[in-house]
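tool_call predict_complex ligand=5,10-Methenyltetrahydrofolate
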Amino acid sequence: MVSSILSSRCPLSSPAAVARALALPRMTLACRFQSSVPMPLGSMAVRSVASRNSSLSAVAPETSAKVIDGKLVSGQIKDEVAAEIARMKDTIGIVPGLAVILVGSRKDSQTYVRNKKKACKAVGINSYEVNLPEDCTEEEVLKHIAIFNDDSSVHGILVQLPLPRHMKEENILNAVSIEKDVDGFHPLNIGRLAMQGRDPLFVPCTPKGCMELLHRYDIEIKGKRAVVIGRSNIVGMPVALLLQKANATVSMVHSYTKNPEEITSQADIIISAAGVANLVRGSWIKPGAVVIDVGINPVDDAESPRGYRLVGDVCYEEACEVASAITPVPGGVGPMTIAMLLSNTLESAKRIHNFK
Ligand SMILES: Nc1nc(=O)c2c([nH]1)NC[C@@H]1CN(c3ccc(C(=O)N[C@@H](CCC(=O)O)C(=O)O)cc3)C=[N+]21
Ligand SMILES: [Mg+2]
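tool_result ok
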């Protein structure tokens, strides 16, 4: 399965992409790392155009990273999940169910929820959705969680994050039954993830998706140096724990890290979840390193129908010339997050109904 994936290469950039890159740095480098990391804006644009031009004329294929195709792998995983769901339905007549609670009307959250529902449908998971207004009370959300906790047709419960500011995330996440916590955000599941010799009932979807990509591309983790950029509860922290459990030596880089480039350039594996476009430059990456880009940053783009497009945390074109393998954005970790949610929901239904 992997051989066809392994041969796909970083695409050469189009003239339009070069033009966009010139406009990019000014918009995107206002990041929280800026005070600690000197990033010469002018030289970046010049350097990246120079490297693009050379790659347009003649680039040895060996210098271009393998693309880790999350879209492709997520499709394989969805097929596997769909087959298991069909087998379960045929054998015991049970169909897995996922309940999604969305509070407020953030456009990005609505898009994610819509995509999750679509993905459920594609693999045969029943999905249930509750939409609550931005100004509803915490009690209202807790009430719906309680209903889903007690509903035997629901095997997974997901409360879309972020929640409105007036709610305490901890109270909400605490209320989800750990048996149905397909996001893996319940403190008990996180606590077990952190402990040696214990396993959570669920591993958070995005971190699990990153690990699954490394595994399916036969990238060794044991004994390797891994650097995680960002320390969020939903990605940075849990993915660092998973890497550690897989016997990597793990460092965390965050907004208070002095000279992050010095740390990242020692890494065999970089997982970036900072939420800062173009943070990770080519010079931050050790030649041959594997780069997993979790960033999903909107940048203005008049040519795109939505008026913006999504980029990761990593300067993709620069990284392609240094890394041995890299995930694109879109088409990398994003689709894997959804595939892992489906897989966690199936796993939950199998466990609840003791289906092997
Ligand atoms: N309780 C909770 N659980 C989550 O798992 C959760 C959440 N809250 N809040 C927001 C983040 C973000 N997230 C993504 C899911 C899919 C893509 C995805 O499919 N991205 C596509 C393309 C997206 C596009 O083009 O719009 C890609 O990268 O190729 C991205 C991001 C889940 N999250
Ligand atoms: Mg992606």
